[in-house]
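Risk register update: the risk of archive-format incompatibility is retired. Evidence:
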Amino acid sequence: MTRAHHLALIVAAAVGPAVALYAAAGPATSHGAALATQAPQADTEVYVTPLPAAGTTVAADALVNASRSPGYDNQPSFLPDGSGVLYTSNRDGQTDIYRFDFASGAATAVTHTPESEYSPIVTPDLRTFSVIRVEADGTQRLWRFDLDGSNPRLVLADVKPVGYHVWVDATHLALFVLGSGREPATLQYADTATGTARVIATGIGRSLHRRPGGGTVSFISKPAGAHWTVSEFDPATGAVRALVDTADDNRGEDVAWTPDGRLLMSRGAMIVQWRPGSTAGWEPFADFSAAGIDRISRIAVQSASGIAGGAPAGRSPDAPRLALVAEPRAR
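Archived output:
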């Protein structure tokens, strides 16, 4: 199984039809060749903008293109010190982690490996970042690097194939783990101290987030033949509950939480919001149709609450930023 086939599998999940990843029918290696021909690499960019006020129409000059590279750029994650954003980029057939620096406007490679790294997230100790790594033999496991991209090491040796992850605290994570055979993906709760993970829910989407202020983890529940929901897992009690139906009729699954507890979800070239406790349902948040982009997928909001322990004192920006992944309307 080649790295290109694995790239096609993950790209299909990240920016193509949501069903593509689950159609893999087994470990990530099972149908990579088929997906390589059915799901060509998407031409996506990572954009950053100040977090808009609700009801805003965003103009093109408000977006900063952080990736500026033809082909696949995805999975943005803010650095908790407010200095930049990490993201995944495929350049010349190689997938590495890049950093966009807000002060200089420069984009630089952080990892330089023969393997492929995806979904960078700064770890709770604020000294490393974790990734999903596609290893030389095609195995997808969770690894971590020092912040300068050095010293790669395994986090969970026996949990695989991992597709996405989010840290809950210094030793626990919620994981999206691909199913075997034709089984759907599962939400698993992992303990780095023991190296083990247990299944929490079955049939989930890729969007995993720590909910601000509560220590719970939100995920997309995708039951067969039913409406998808944004659901919540409480590691303290083990309870799982539905929060709200998704906004895009079982097509979209990309969400993010704002620092004040609102849930954002992409829908075409728009982002909509849900306010817990409100009876209004999903409401308009920001319209990007005038900004020269189509089909927003992954979104991220700059917030120290997403990292256990918070950001270093005095280093978070006054105004949070929004990062989004979208297809440019024209090159």
